Amino acid sequence: MYKTMFGASGFRKGMDLYFQRHDGQAVTCEDFYAAMCDANNAHLPNFLQWYSQAGTPTVKVTSSYDEGSQAFSLKLSQEVPPTPGQPMKEPMFIPVAVGLVDSTGKDMPLTSIYSDGMVQTLSNDGHPIFTTVLQFKKKEEEFIFKNVPERPVPSLLRGYSAPIRLDSDLTESDLYFLLANDSDEFNRWEAGQILARKLMFSLVADFQQQKTLALNTKFVDGLRAILQSTSLDKEFIAKAITLPGQGEIMDMMSIADPDAVHAVRTFIKKELAFQLKDDLLAAVTSNRSSEAYAFDHDSVARRALKNTCLAYLASLNEPDVTELALNEYKSATNMTEQFAALAALSQNPGQVREDALLDFYNKWQQDYLVVSKWFALQATSDIPGNVVNVQKLLAHPAFDMRNPNKVYSLIGGFCGSPVSFHAKDGSGYKFLGEVVLQLDKINPQVASRMVSAFSRWRRYDETRQALAKAQLEMIISANGLSENVYEIALKSLAA
Questions:
Q1: What does UniProt give as the signal peptide span (predicted)?
Q2: DSSP-derived pairing of the beta strands 165-168 and 71-79
Q3: Which structural domains are found in the chain, ordered by start?
């Protein structure tokens, strides 16, 4: 936020003054704040609330346009929810970076803003300004942009200028427009994520009502346009076409439904792979490289895009695509690409998956960290009946219950799988309950971290609640239980 407000050079000036003043001293947040402000001759009222006030602010934004006066207004209001010990919250100082996009998808030059009875003229040595940072520091404020010739679509919170929750009046068509045109990559990505979340929620409702699932064609077209772009950064494209995770969607539900969320995300992924197959294949082909491994931005971006597209394609589980993924696996010149091809292949149960996993292990078994990744890949898998596979891996020669990192990879990884851990029959919960008791006798600290996977059991339906609660009660009643595990299990039960 300091860098957003003062720019890179202003932030550097603040850092230089900070080190000049405080080198070798014990310092406070206030000292850092003072150095930043003094170096830039600035005063940031109520900015220190960020250090003292708990909770994430929600900023609500409503917009309006007056054609006669060519004025575009943004009304902002903020609220910080009450937290234990802080029932009443003061307004925060929130830097909101804003740009205005015209009907052709271009950024409008910003000339002046009216706020709090004052007009601020925007200038940069005669160069046009396309993004400005609004200093939002009251409970409610209005910012009016002057000389705006048509109604724009606002691009709000550019570059994620403040760690807030944004609630704006942007319509679905505004979001599709920003997804296609915004010059700010963060907002372009965020528009896609908001649309994906909305789509997933509506399809979850359809799934729960046993309706036929159908994908919004505008969403497919939006991702196709990004995939086909030759001007966008490849790493950005990889991130922009990646759907929100199952955990993220379940966190936003009043009653988390792992089955519905998994079914919907799998449906969207396969449908996108089916409808965008040619584009995805083209991306895999054009981003192959036989050159020696290099760790630079272009190489990282190329691998990220290729691997993301390969994972989409492999979800189709069609012979030609499986052959492609196998070929990528065998011809990979580095572990990043080989592991990504293995992950793509391991989405689908069967002999191809088993052979690839065994081959990878035989190749990398001497590398401790790679074997941990290999365990985690299988533990987090969504393939049906994965509890049994993970149970078998406990007996694998490379697994050692006394080694915390191996436990985090296999058991911790399994707890992070919404499908297998939250299996409707309770097999995932039962497995964890048994493992926690075994672990407790070896390493109580690690066992207590594992049992915390039960801490959010009340977020789920009554059947899962009863099954998870039964495991917590079983753990608490065990003989010779460590204090570490007892404390976490008891807290989880009371949560």
A1: none
A2: unpaired
A3: 1-44 (no CATH), 54-169 (2.60.40.1840), 171-316 (1.25.50.10), 366-494 (1.25.50.10)
